[in-house]
Amino acid sequence: MLIIGEKLNSSIPSIRQIINDKDIVAIRDLALRQVAAGADYLDLNTAQCNEVADMEWLVCTVQEVTNVPLCLDSTEGEAIKKGLETVKGDKSKVIINSISMEKKRLEEVLPLVLEYQCPVIGLTVDDNGIPKTAEDRLKITERLIETLRKENYDLDKVYIDPLVLPLAVNHTNAAMFFQCLMDIKRLFKVKTVSGLSNISYNMPKRKLINRYFLTICMASGMDTAILDPLDRKIMTAVTTADLLLGNDRFGKNFLKAYRQDLLED
Description:
With 265 residues, this protein is of the alpha/beta class. 48% of the residues lie in helices and 15% in strands. An eight-stranded parallel β-barrel has the order 1-2-3-4-5-6-7-8, surrounded by six helices. It is globular, with a radius of gyration of 18 Å.
């Protein structure tokens, strides 16, 4: 399971304030703590700030203390472009978050995906919004994959996000999401990804819901999660689920986490 650390996101009020204040020490500390906790990538989102300029600043600030690959998270092509131009090292390791079948996003982001040949997160949404059914999300997935295939893009770099909606809105939303994950893996043979927080929105005990949601997603074939790696219990869930699913050869990662006192029950 690939872990994308979610904490450097301007939609979080405290992080937005840190970015606005240009608090270098706080940004570096949060980046390093996420990496130490097991993040394979760091998601950078400046959507609630001065998006383009702050993306440049955030990339520079984070890369001064860690070489962990970045996930550039924006709906604006200009912010992603500035991030890619600013990144030091191998730009083809950057994950672009995200592309979809929305006309504006496709026009702005697809050229950057093709120019840099980066991995990309594809959202199952078009100009009509997020479909209500799994079938319609699969149709958008097919259109998106076909668009990338026509451009000779390496489909091994695609991560499809079927876009989970809150249980508080519809009690079947999680079950539909699990079905989407399994169908996408079966029909299209591409990787899948999701954030966790939407599923528990407006519910009590959100972290509890998120943990169990994540483990069922992993059992349904999800490859990548955007989550808070500083949450020891959710990281324990990742490590334990990987062990149970046969992804941890000889239990090496589980035993290593145990010896480092990282497992929390």
